[in-house]
Amino acid sequence: MSIGWTPIAEEAERAARLRHPDRHSMPRPTRRRIIGVANQKGGVGKTTSTVNVAAALAMHGVRVLVVDLDPQGNASTALGVEHRAGTPSIYEALLGEISLVEAAAHSTASENLLCVPATIDLAGAEIELVSMVARESRLRQALSDRVLDELNVDYVFIDCPPSLGLLTVNALVAAAEVLIPIQCEYYALEGLGQLLSNIDLVRSHLNTALHVSTILLTMYDGRTKLADQVTSEVRQHFAETVLRTVIPRSVKVSEAPGYSQTVLAYDPGSRGAMSYVDAAREIAEYGARTDDADAGGSK
């Protein structure tokens, strides 16, 4: 069922225009981008970053699909998409019972934003997938070019669960890029080595196109030396992969999901909302640079 454009979403768009009056629209990629958002550590802003970056791109004229692959269904909640038991969801699409087109629903965040929700049924998918043929590639099959052409989307963001199980492997096999949110707090890099090792394994055996394209620093508190130390360490390790934009620690960002909204809808003028707009712009500009480089190399 389609949910209409809302006045609060229009308010968020106006706030974005105020922030960037001369460059409102974001570049659309010449080739569709499929991005897995992953970090095995919970509480790093993974789902929050997924939905807000997706909403920011959608509000600036880009067509976006969010695939909620986390059984908790938090991305579905934040995007205002129904995900009660029995709702057509990513679970049925992974099993091959329905097409992803049948499960995709319009988000309340933007008319350009679609979401394939996660229901409680997805909690048992890890066990069910084990015995299936091509168990690591079920999501890639569901996200076929034909399906994505029918949905007419420029970006696909896959919100992974906070673990390195079979659902996350499916996301890494389906994606070409990985976006890793890292919080500016103690133990920021905890478990990251294992995630990077898994990405290398998937690239070696299942998906040669996979690479870490983006690292986003979240929960930044400029009042603490620790935040600056973590930021410096991450930038030193990952260089240009790290976005210039950092997402501040914000009560508004934390409150928004409780109202089934992105922060861009909940408080469009807040620092958190505008930071996600800036992060989305960097991601879009990265895609444009990559497209130009590829075009130049093919001449």
Automatic annotation (TrEMBL):
Residue span of the signal peptide, if any? Answer: none
Q: Where is the AAA domain?
A: 33-211
InterPro entries according to UniProt: AAA_dom, DNA_Partitioning_ATPase, P-loop_NTPase
Output the CDD domains linked to this UniProt entry: ParAB_family (cd02042)
PANTHER family hit by this protein: P-LOOP CONTAINING NUCLEOSIDE TRIPHOSPHATE HYDROLASE (PTHR13696), PARA FAMILY PROTEIN CT_582 (PTHR13696:SF52)
Q: What is this protein called?
A: ParA family protein
Per the UniProt entry, what species is this protein from, by scientific name? Pseudonocardia ailaonensis
